[in-house]
Write a structure and sequence with these properties.
Layout lengths: L2 H10 L2 E4 L2 E4 L11 H13 L8 E8 L9 E10 L3 E10 L2 E11 L23 H7 L6 H8 L4 E5 L14 E8 L7 H11 L21 E12 L9 E11 L2 E10 L4 E13 L7
Helix pairs in contact: 2-5
Amino acid sequence: MKEAVQDLLSILELERIEDNIFRGQGRASGQRAIFGGLVAAQALMAASRTVPAERPVHSLHAYFLRPGDFSVPIIYDVERIRDGKSFTTRRVRAIQHGRAIFSLAASFHIEEDGVEHQADMPEVPGPEGLPTDREQRQAFAHRIPEQFREAFLSERPVEVRAIRPANPFEAEPQEPVRQAWFRLADRAEMDEATRRAILAFASDFGLLGTAMLPHGVNFFQPHVQSASIDHTMWFHGSFEPHEWLLYHCHSPFAGGARGLNFGSIYRADGTLVASTAQEGLVRLRPEEPPA
C-alpha cells in the first residue's frame, strides 16, 4: 500500500480516551493550518465509532471555527444527541488549546428501501489521459516558496485529475464550474464508516475555489484571504474510494466576502453517491504596489 494512503488510514484510526472522547493527530500539507477535510473526516470517524455499524452516516453539517494547529493533537468530544428506532444523531466538537476549532452534527440511518431518482452525471472526458494533480504541481513548483515546496510536492493519498487544469499563478476569469476525477491512490480494506470519512476528506478539495473562478483569483494570491466557513454533505449510495469518482462543483453566488458552492459526486457509471454544499470566506485585501 502506498505510504500516503497508509498514513491517511492511520490518522483516521483515532485513539479512544473515553466512551465519547477521541484523540487524533493533524498533518502538515503545505498549508498554513490543518486541512479542513482532515478535521471533518476525523470528526465523522469519532461520531461513527459511537453508532452501530448497520447505521451509516447519511448527512453531516459542520462549521470551521478556528485554524487547526499541526503541533498538538485534536480532541474530539462526541455528544450522543439521540438514538431512535431508525435514526441516530451525534454532535462533535474538535478541540485544541481548550477551544473548539470545528463543530459537526451528523445523522445516521438504517438502510431502507424507498422512492428513487437522481440528477444525471454531466458528460465529461474520462480520467484516462488527463494530467494528474502531482504533474500539475510539479509544473509550477518553482514558484512555490522553498520552505513549502517539499510538502507541496509530496505524494498525497487522493489522486485528482482536473477536467480543465489551470495554472494558479496565471488565473483568468472563467465560469464558476469545476470538474475533476479523484480516487484514493491505492486499494485498501476498510469498513463503511472509513469509506465515508475518506469521501468527507476528499469533498473539501477544490469546492471553495469554485466561487473564485469567475474573478480570476485563488488561494495562491497574497491579497486573497480565504477559508471554509461551513460544510454540508449528504451520502446517497455505495462506492469504493479507490475507484474513480467525478466531482462536479458549481457556484451560484458570491458576495459579502463569501462564496457559495455546491457539489455532486458520481461513480464512473453515473450513479450519484454524495452531494455537498459549502460557504467560504473570499476576502480581497488591497494589493501592495510593486517595489
